[in-house]
Amino acid sequence: MALLESLTDPEVLAAVNDAANLLDDKDSVALAQAATVGIARLEAVRFRALAQLNRHRDGARSVTQEVAFALSVGDHHAGALVAAADALTARLPRTLGLMDHGELAGFSAMKVAAATVWLSDEDARTVDTLLEDRIPGKNPDQVRKAANHAANTVDPDGADARTERHREGRRLTVRQGESGVASIEVEDGPVEKVTAAYQRIDRQARALNTKDEPRTLEQLRADVALDLLLGGHGSSGERSEVFLYMDLFTYLGLNNDPAELAGHGSIPAVLARHIATSPDSVLRRIVTDPLSGQVLDLGRDRYRPTAGLGEFVRVRDRECRRPGCHRPAQACDLDHALPWQHGGHTADTELLDLCRRDHRLKDEPGWTYHLTPNGTLTITTPTGQTYDSPPPPLHEPRPPANEPPPF
Question: Could you report the per-residue pLDDT of 231-256, keeping only the tens digit for each?
Fold first, then answer.
């Protein structure tokens, strides 16, 4: 551990950073290259550590979640890191060696691991040998192409099976962007269907692209695709339920405090008012504790019947309660922090929202979940690390009326 600490010694890094401000263009590039070499070497160390953890746990499913916690990354990326760590340490020693020498970045090494995941151990090592002299200095896309070509060359008969397995891995993902935007993507979909879908979207977008249409063709493609996904016909908006949190003064335009969209995060007041004033919006009154900002009650004034306790918990939680998971609460399971058969009760103080994956994680050996009366969830991992997840307040805590505001 002392060696690792020396590699990231704050005093050494501060001296390097100070020197960087005095470099010319040539030396600046050289320093960036040297830093990249060091990063690659440290990534190799990280892969070995993750592989060791996975071996200790016999490949338990929960390793991915613990890595996501420890490294502050998403579950999908954590899973890819663990899978790559196993492959690099067990089947791809030459690729890992390139990282040790600073000749290959961790992201590029993961491309090799992904391309060879379907191969036998023997064939994977053959590909590893073939690539040793071909991929140093190449960018990730070049590495991916070289690795796929080598895999198909070494095992041409398995190419059809690999293609089918890839297609079986298709999934829909959502990536939250900056305030007010997000991306949706069908990953690893059948190429013929993806191509046909794009052609349909493009055709309808071009039909709308008249001289009086203010939107660009790219904007029209995006709008048509979203409308089709929402059950429309490619030209008009459709109703969909989302949870938008904004205070009354913001809604009335008396202030411009940001609002929050569940699953996405903060959005500007202008966008929040635009969403809230849509003809299809359903407004609810939510009563909060002024001192903590936590939800106390839901107004019943709405044109759909209330779902009672479950709805209260979903409004309180907004998203899956595992730190780092942003699946909206309305798409999660309502679960007991303490299993009801072990003494748990069906009350808001013992219920929380967990997505299906994290619901299953709670039942893994060594994981414990504790929910306090104020709604704070504490998760303890098999290595004894704890992570707290308090329910997000609807507003900043406010002082009592008889106390002056803080300066």
Answer: 766 555 444 456 777 777 777 777 88
Please, which residues have CB within 8 angstroms of residue 288's CB and are 6 or more apart in sequence?
294, 295, 296, 393, 394, 395
Sign of the Cα torsion 122, 123, 125, 129 reads positive
- Cα–Cα separations (whole angstroms), residue 143 to 45, 82, 130, 131, 148: 21, 20, 12, 9, 9
Burial degree of 318 (CB within 10 A; 0-12, 13-18, 19+)? buried
At residue 305, the pLDDT reads 29
The per-residue pLDDT of the chain, averaged, comes to: 80
Q: Which amino acid is at 295?
A: V
Higher pLDDT, 275 or 152: 152
Contact in structure between 224 and 234 (CB atoms under 8 Å): yes
Provide mean pLDDT across the span 378-398.
Answer: 80
pLDDT at 288: 61
Interatomic CA distance for residues 139 and 214, integer angstroms: 38
As given in the structure block, the two tokens for residue 79 are 């899973």
**pTM greater than the 0.85 cutoff:** no
What is the C-alpha separation between 230 and 180, in angstroms, rounded?
18
Write out the DSSP string of 39-94: HHHHHHHHHHHHHHHHHHTTT-THHHHHHHHHHT--HHHHHHHHHHHHHHHHT-HH
| Beta strand extents in 153-199 (DSSP E only) | 171-176, 182-187
- In 3D, which of 352, 292, 294 has the Cα closest to residue 322? 352
User: Per DSSP, which regions of 96-196 are E strands?
Assistant: 171-176, 182-187
**Token duo for residue 208:** 């709308």
In 3D, which of 280, 270, 287, 186 has the Cα closest to residue 242? 280
**Cβ–Cβ under 8 Å, residues 321 and 379:** no
Q: Does the pLDDT value for residue 304 go beyond 50?
A: no
Q: Concatenated DSSP letters for 270-316?
A: HHHHHHHTSTT-----EEE-TTT--EEEE---SSS---THHHHHHHH
- Please report the pLDDT score of residue 91 as a whole number: 96
